[in-house]
């Protein structure tokens, strides 16, 4: 009898406590729990590749900063000139000439003179030559300014002299490209490289270092020119115009895709 009375008293007390609790707390907790579960379910699975929608679901600020887009193929686009290579060579030449870092003054003066001459030559080409992307062709043109300098270009014209190695025009169709790159890397560009099949096979020449050919593959004509133009813009337009590329760009071999 006493046990039955005690159980009845405990049941009464429990109902009394629940009666004085706010009725809205339980639904609020349940709604919050449901929202968390729904947000977790909306995230992509761990093994599936992230799509743009999935990335926005995880990072809602992604759209605010935009997503990467394919580069735009520009027509009659003149790449900005870049004096980095010329100024670096001149600076090295001045350092060798003035401070004589080696034990031989003759070697320092010889090396300094070479760097000063080569830096001046690249600087002259930077002022004179422009890299141009036409609708169907890649071209090197010459400014029409009577006095070369840092002023704005007044006009452009095809180069007066043909390619000094091949004797052909300095204009190549995009669909004849076999490869292109930057040396030693895109982060430290000194030379721009590309290979094309537009040059007739009987006119193609192979670069060589002593008895060893630099290019043993018989699949086009190589071209090199100093990086006197913005290589980031050159790369963007090579890609935008569909120029064939073999392998990653130098300096990005280990970059995660």
**Tally of strands:** 10
Percent range for β-strand residues? 15-25%
Low-confidence stretches: 14-23, 44-67, 208-212
The structural class is: alpha+beta
Question: Could you tell me how far the N terminus lies from the C terminus, measured between alpha carbons in angstroms?
Answer: 78 Å
| Alpha plus pi helix count | 7
Write down the overall mean pLDDT: 78
How many strands, what sense, and barrel or not for the largest sheet?
5 strands, antiparallel
Order of helices and strands: HHHHEHHEEEEEEEEEH
Shape estimate: globular
Q: Which quaternary structure do these chains form? A: single chain
What share of residues is helical? Answer: 25-40%
Over the alpha carbons, how many angstroms does the gyration radius reach? 34 Å
């Amino acid at each position: 009898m006493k046990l039955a009375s005690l159980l009845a008293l405990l049941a009464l007390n429990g109902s009394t406590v629940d009666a004085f609790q706010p009725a809205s707390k339980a639904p609020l907790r349940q709604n919050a729990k449901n929202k968390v579960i729904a947000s977790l379910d909306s995230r992509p699975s761990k093994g599936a590749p992230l799509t743009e929608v999935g990335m926005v679901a995880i990072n809602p600020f992604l759209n605010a900063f935009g997503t990467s887009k394919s580069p735009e193929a520009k027509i009659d686009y003149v790449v900005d000139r870049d004096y980095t290579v010329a100024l670096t060579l001149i600076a090295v030449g001045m350092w060798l000439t003035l401070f004589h870092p080696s034990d031989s003054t003759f070697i320092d003066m010889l090396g300094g003179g070479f760097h000063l001459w080569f830096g001046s030559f690249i600087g002259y080409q930077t002022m004179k030559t422009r890299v141009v992307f036409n609708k169907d062709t890649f071209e090197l043109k010459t400014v029409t300014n009577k006095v070369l300098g840092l002023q704005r270009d007044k006009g452009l014209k095809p180069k007066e002299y043909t390619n000094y190695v091949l004797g052909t025009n300095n204009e190549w169709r995009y669909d004849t490209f076999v490869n292109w790159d930057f040396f030693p890397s895109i982060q430290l560009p000194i030379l721009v490289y590309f290979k094309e099949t537009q040059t007739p096979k009987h006119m193609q020449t192979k670069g060589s270092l002593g008895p060893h050919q630099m290019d043993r593959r018989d699949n086009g004509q190589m071209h090199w020119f100093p990086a006197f133009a913005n290589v980031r813009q050159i790369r963007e337009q090579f890609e935008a115009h569909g120029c064939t590329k073999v392998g990653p760009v130098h300096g990005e071999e280990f970059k995660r895709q």
